[in-house]
């Protein structure tokens, strides 16, 4: 076969654990498409919209915790991958990006579907690769195999992330009618043996000596995948050694950690400011938490990260520890425990600092619950109330995807019951509204769990093509908060005071999701009143084997009034 090296390229992907691919139809990528589809160990889906396709792959890769391939034709198709590629890069999610291209001599020659694709994703991939268009010399085959091995190895190396392989292709693209498309078996797989970073005994001795100097040691987790072992270790550090552990909802720490910090942080800074801050994970949702730590800088700040970038979110970084959080906190627990045993020290570490955090967290949680009890006996429906009721009612062991803007913020205030072990996802790498529906669709395609997406109207309609495919799963449940505009712009101070608010910030719109639900064959519910909401919530939450949209229509101005009342009402 003329394009046998492309078939062998796909064989290497399979042997290296890439078993899912999202293909967007085109002609230039036909050899890749045929090789992927006909490979018995690779599951392929055809998604026409490249932007949606890449976000669906992102959602799949998050669940599978393995690379997913995306494949498109030449030209602007590749550019449509860019938002999801950037999100994957900052979330450290592995994607294998396969872009078909014209041979070099045809670029900028007024031929169809030709753009400059080399390094098209810039710094938003771990590395870009390109193979040659001619395979006549044995070294060309060696280069292709070496490139594919390198790319997949790199995508899987911590910190994980997307890699790009640009593939110029010459005609003919299509096999003969009865031609068998299989690997010739003569491919070479190059494995990269992973090692675990550890810290030397000397480093540990210095770290422990530093910890002993400080009474106020704070552990804070950014966005992270759910890890029950890490959760258990951090729970012990908090319960047994009085280190407060703080995390947003997307930290996925399912124990009784400090929460509701958004509510109370501006009021007790003197008692809560850390002397030593230990952080792990990626981004933090809470602006209050970031502002608090920037204003009240720790004497020392250690960040656990295998990333080569120097990330100083709180402007206080003093030490980067290039190790995994589970290793670090497990070893920390072991070392502190052993140190106390060796020294015959039965005296517990003072709980004053932890108590201060717990006291504030408890008061904030009580305030949250009482606010809902006292303020929602009226008949006008608002989104804060609706989200609280639905998040409280989510079934255990489900997944919750949070769209950006107000959805992720509401959910961070409200939280979920940690005993239910609900894993939470959000596109907080770039925090854009694009692709939120597609990411949830990808997740639902790769799990048997119920997947819930909490999303606002602008983010939903922006990504409506996520539902334009033949593969809609039956476990996707979309909670659509439709206030007919970008309600967040009424809440934040800057745009809310501008004459251009309605047309240029909030962007008022009159759409509903009813027709979209019908076209995608999703069950549809719509509530505009408190009574309708309570009645339909029961039906929506029933796992009846069909995907659903629950559209909750509210008034943006009333939502703003309720939320500002909530923000202003808390006092220590």
Automatic annotation (TrEMBL):
The keyword Transmembrane helix does not apply. InterPro entries: MenaQ_synth_MenD, MenD_middle, THDP-binding, Thiamin_PyroP_enz_TPP-bd_dom. Keywords: Magnesium, Manganese, Menaquinone biosynthesis, Metal-binding, Thiamine pyrophosphate, Transferase. Binds 1 thiamine pyrophosphate per subunit. One of its GO terms (molecular function) is 2-succinyl-5-enolpyruvyl-6-hydroxy-3-cyclohexene-1-carboxylic-acid synthase activity. It catalyses: isochorismate + 2-oxoglutarate + H(+) = 5-enolpyruvoyl-6-hydroxy-2-succinyl-cyclohex-3-ene-1-carboxylate + CO2. Signal peptide: none annotated. Its cofactor is thiamine diphosphate; Mg(2+); Mn(2+). Its EC number is 2.2.1.9. It is an enzyme of class 2 (transferase). Belongs to the TPP enzyme family. MenD subfamily. Catalyzes the thiamine diphosphate-dependent decarboxylation of 2-oxoglutarate and the subsequent addition of the resulting succinic semialdehyde-thiamine pyrophosphate anion to isochorismate to yield 2-succinyl-5-enolpyruvyl-6-hydroxy-3-cyclohexene-1-carboxylate (SEPHCHC). Homodimer. This is 2-succinyl-5-enolpyruvyl-6-hydroxy-3-cyclohexene-1-carboxylate synthase. It comes from Arcicella aquatica.
């Amino acid at each position: 076969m003329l394009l046998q090296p492309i078939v062998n390229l796909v064989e290497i992907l399979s042997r290296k654990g890439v078993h899912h691919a999202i293909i967007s139809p085109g002609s230039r990528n036909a050899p890749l498409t045929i090789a992927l589809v006909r490979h018995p160990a690779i599951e392929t889906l055809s998604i026409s919209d490249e932007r949606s396709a890449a976000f669906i792959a992102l959602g799949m890769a998050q669940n599978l915790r393995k690379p997913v391939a995306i494949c498109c034709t030449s030209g602007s198709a590749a550019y449509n991958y860019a938002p999801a590629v950037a999100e994957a890069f900052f979330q450290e999610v592995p994607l294998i990006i396969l872009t078909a291209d014209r041979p070099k001599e045809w670029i900028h020659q007024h031929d169809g579907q030709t753009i400059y694709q080399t390094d098209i994703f810039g710094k938003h991939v771990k590395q870009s690769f390109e193979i040659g268009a001619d395979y006549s010399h044995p070294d060309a085959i060696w280069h292709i195999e070496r490139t594919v091995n390198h790319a997949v190895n790199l995508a899987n190396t911590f910190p994980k992330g997307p890699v790009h392989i640009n593939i110029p292709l010459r005609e003919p693209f299509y096999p003969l009618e009865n031609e068998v498309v299989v690997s010739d078996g003569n491919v070479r797989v190059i494995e990269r043996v992973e090692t675990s970073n550890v810290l030397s005994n000397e480093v540990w001795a210095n770290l422990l000596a530093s910890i002993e100097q400080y009474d106020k040691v704070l552990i804070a987790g950014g966005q992270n995948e759910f890890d029950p072992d890490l959760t258990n270790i951090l729970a012990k550090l908090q319960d047994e050694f009085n280190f407060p552990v703080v995390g947003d909802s997307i930290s996925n720490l399912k124990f009784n950690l400090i929460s509701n910090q958004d509510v109370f942080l501006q009021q007790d800074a003197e008692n809560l400011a850390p002397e030593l801050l230990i952080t792990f994970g990626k981004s933090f949702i809470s602006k209050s938490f970031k502002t608090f730590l920037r204003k009240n800088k720790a004497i020392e700040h250690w960040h656990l990260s295998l990333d080569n970038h120097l990330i100083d979110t709180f402007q206080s970084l003093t030490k980067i520890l290039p190790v995994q959080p589970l290793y670090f906190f497990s070893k920390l627990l072991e070392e502190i425990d052993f140190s106390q045993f060796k020294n015959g020290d039965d005296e517990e570490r003072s709980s004053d600092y932890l108590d201060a955090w717990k006291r504030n967290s408890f008061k904030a949680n009580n305030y949250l619950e009482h606010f809902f009890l006292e303020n929602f006996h009226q008949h006008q429906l608002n989104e804060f109330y609706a989200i609280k009721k639905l998040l409280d009612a989510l079934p255990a062991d489900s997944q919750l995807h949070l769209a950006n803007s107000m959805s992720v913020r509401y959910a961070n205030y409200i939280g979920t019951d940690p005993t239910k072990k609900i894993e939470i996802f959000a596109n907080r790498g770039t925090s854009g509204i694009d692709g939120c529906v597609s990411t949830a669709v990808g997740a639902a395609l790769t799990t048997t769990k119920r997947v819930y997406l909490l999303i606002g109207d602008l983010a939903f309609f922006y990504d409506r093509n996520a539902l334009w495919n033949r593969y809609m799963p039956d476990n996707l449940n979309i909670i659509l908060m439709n206030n007919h505009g970008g309600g967040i712009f009424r809440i934040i101070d800057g745009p809310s005071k501008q004459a251009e608010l309605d047309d240029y910030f909030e962007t008022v719109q009159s759409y509903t999701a009813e027709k979209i639900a019908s076209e995608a064959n999703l069950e549809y519910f719509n509530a505009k009143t408190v009574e309708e909401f309570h009645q339909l919530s029961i039906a929506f939450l029933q796992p009846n084997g069909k995907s659903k949209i629950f559209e909750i229509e509210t008034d943006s101005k009333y939502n703003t009034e309720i939320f500002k009342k909530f923000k202003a009402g808390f006092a220590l």
